[in-house]
Amino acid sequence: MLDQISEIIPDQFLQQAVFDRLRLGILAGTFIGGARLPPSRHLADELGVSRQTVVLAYERLAAEGYVRTRIGSGTFVASDLPDAAPPQAGLPQAAAIRLSARGAAIAATPLSAAGPMVGDGLFAAGGPALDLFPASAWASATARVLRGLSPDLSAYPDTQGLLALRVEVAAHLAATRGLLTTPEQIVVTSATQQALRIAADMLLDPGDPAWVEDPGYIAGRGALAAAGARLVPVPSDGDGMDVAVGIARAPNAKLVLVAPSHATPLGGALPIGRRLALLDWAAQADAWVLEDDCDSEFRWEGKPLLPLANLDRAGRVIYCGTFSKTLAPALRIGFAVMPQAMVAPFERARALSDRGPAALAQAVLADFMAAGRLAPHIRRMRTEYAKRRAALLAALARHCPAVTAVAAPGGLHLVLALAGGNEEAVVVAARARGLAVSPLAGYYVGASRMAGLVVGFASMPVARAGEAAKRLALAVRAVG
């Protein structure tokens, strides 16, 4: 309790530090009543301070009634202390924490189906290949920004987002997604999650119904629930959200969270009929559609699908994108594209909770994009991810035939159906073997309709696909 004090406390505070340590030790019961404290010379040597420092601390303890000094015998802890002993040394702790009903609901809302990270993250879903981050190009962009550092980048960032970045995002969306927008319609956010939460806060009153895909994006529906929405699960199949079921279950819903190009986790994409039906209903019901364009850059079958926002003529769609999958989650930079009338209230809501990603990070990303680095990086990643996906599928077919990969035309993960069921036991067995698999059941709002595992392949090198498949096969066999 008292060691190394001279190394961590400045000289002018040593006496106060010795006094505080001894006082807290006495109150916490470390030094019991009647116990003899170490001689001042011995304690000074132990702490690496002068004897005078300890003598003065002892004198203050005696003056305040914590110790008694007996000439010729030493210094002893008083049996009748001047104040009640706290339960433990340090900051006081509340006996209990009472959250509001809304706070308790938020605290109980899961962020993902994944448990604690195990092993080296083999099979972990939801992230890109961090080992392939374009570090050299990013360092060059950072150096250029720092050389011409503007005073604006040291101030509070523009709550709508750095204009230079919004200009690049608009150009990127036009070139890669066919989405024509203007920088004035874009708000830079701390990735997609913040965009969803702000939109829910601004568009929903507590108890308002909101459609969510079932199974679907866990943290996304959590953002709606945290805003007080009444979640209405709508089945998601190979063609994405079943709009007809949504209309039947909650025709008066105020908001829809949907990933029309790649539903999480099954990978379904909305065909044109469902897209038009969803937009028609939203216009008639005065409802909003939150379009999560997750993983749209990574499609393995067919042509890339245009965003739902391209078809929107009534101004009911808020399009949400992120750089977490194309570059790195640690950047915490995403964006939302919305009707112009929505920009000001959306911007105000984010300013009240978060002034936005650091201006310097936004400037570096804008420079990186302006230098033409993002598009080639995405092309390289698409090629590498296709190899990793193919390697895993081949390895599973060879070493683990007990699972069946659910066909998904895009994304950075696979869903593996378990023929024998017993999903929970397989997850436990797989994680015991260092595989960071996620249970498919976690993606459902209610009871799951299929037993399976969600496994990521983006962060797994081709050379490790066989190893991962063999370990999974051992886990499945162990369950029987």
Which key phrases capture this entry?
480 residues; alpha/beta; Arc Repressor Mutant, subunit A; Aspartate Aminotransferase, domain 2; eight-stranded mixed β-sheet; four-stranded antiparallel β-sheet; 40% helix
Describe this structure in words.
It is globular and about 95 Å long. It is built from 16 helices and 14 strands. It starts with a helix and ends with a helix. The chain has 480 residues and is an alpha/beta fold. The chain has three domains: 5-77, Winged helix-like DNA-binding domain superfamily/Winged helix DNA-binding domain (Arc Repressor Mutant, subunit A, Orthogonal Bundle); 135-372, Aspartate Aminotransferase, domain 2 (3-Layer(aba) Sandwich); 376-479, Aspartate Aminotransferase, domain 1 (Alpha-Beta Complex). α7 (163-176) packs across α13. 40% of the residues lie in helices and 13% in strands.
| Rg estimate, integer Å | 29 Å
Q: Quaternary arrangement of the chains shown?
A: single chain
Main structural class: alpha/beta
Unreliable spans: 1-11, 85-90
Largest sheet: 8 strands, mixed
What's this entry about, in short?
With 480 residues, this protein is of the alpha/beta class. It has helices at 5-8, 14-28, 40-47, 51-63, 101-107, 135-147, 163-176, 191-203, 218-226, 243-249, 272-285, 340-353, 359-370, 374-399, 423-432, 465-479, and strands at 67-70, 74-77, 186-189, 209-214, 230-237, 240-241, 255-258, 288-292, 317-322, 334-337, 403-405, 413-418, 438-439, 452-456.
